[in-house]
Predict the structure.
Amino acid sequence: MVNAFQGAIIAAGRGDRLRATSGISTPKPLVSVQGVPLLVRQANAMISAGASDVLAVINSETSSMAAAIAFPAGLRITVRDTESSMESLFVLGEHLKPGSFLLATVDAMLPMGELARFVARARELTAADSPNRFDGVLGVVRWRGDRTPLFTETDDLGLIRALGKRESEMVTAGVYWLSTEIFRFVSEARRRQLSALRAFLQMLIEEQTRLGAVEVIGAIDIDEASDLEAARRMVMGQP
């Protein structure tokens, strides 16, 4: 496939907040939106955006309940009970071929076509001949009051200067265009005892990795019952 890339999905969390607010006992990757489990939906979105194959890391609970799920042919699954989203990323890194890859959390939903637009723009910004070349790109979305956002601070050229709790207009959207070069920082991240993907991304910035921001429109991070309903409306084309 011309210009194909690797896709990777972090799907090893339990989704405790969604369970608590929705009453759903199913692991989050298997929660359905209009009849399609989130993991299947995310893998299909990546394949539609140009991924040649998609790797996902899920936990043992999800694996034990997934026998009846029809997964896409291009999806490869690794089962690992990881301690954090950062460690889930590192598991994915064990299987990715060298080069750029599209990363997403399983609960990040974008409107149709928006993921492909993000990939196209990210590729432009990380191309060798880009005048303001970035090492990677994070999808960002305008903050709508989410309870645990990761705020982004950028300069005028879109370079991310900081990620954290200090309130700003934009927050991360759960989609990332990264290089496997980031995995050379695995040992340092563990030495610092980091415990989340967001902390690892901030460390990359501190280590002079140039991460840019690209706004994605209408992204939903499915953490609570209200987010699940918003995702259903998105799929049905309702405001």
Remarks:
- The domain at 5-236 is CATH 3.90.550.10 (Spore Coat Polysaccharide Biosynthesis Protein SpsA; Chain A).
